[in-house]
Amino acid sequence: MGNDKKIAIFIAGIILVGLSVTVFFPQEKPRNAEAEVRIGAGDDISGILMDETVEGLSEKYKVSENLESSSFQDC
């Protein structure tokens, strides 16, 4: 078998594998434009940075403040 045939078979195999992956593997669900994005930060400097970010985003997006306490393990 010549090198040209080996290269052609290799490329055809790669294309076949790629097509199989796109067809048979699970895919992402469509984006839900109405979904809420929840953000949060601690009481340290990250909270101050988050407040500044939310303030900047509120000019472009609707931002609502729902205060909810939850604990998380930090370091």
Q: What letter string, H or E per element, gives the SSE order? A: HH
What would the average pLDDT be, to the nearest integer?
81
Q: Total strand count, please?
A: 0
- First CA to last CA: what distance? 59 Å
- Class by helix and strand content? mainly alpha
Low-confidence regions? none
Cα Rg: 25 Å
Task: Give the secondary structure arrangement, pairings included.
Layout: H1 3-24, H2 45-57
Molecular structure report:
It contains 2 helices and no strands. The chain is an all-alpha fold. The termini are far apart.
Relevant terms:
75 residues, mainly alpha, 2 helices, 47% helix, 0% strand, elongated
Report a brief summary of the structure.
This protein has 75 residues and is mainly alpha-helical. The protein is built from 2 helices and no strands.
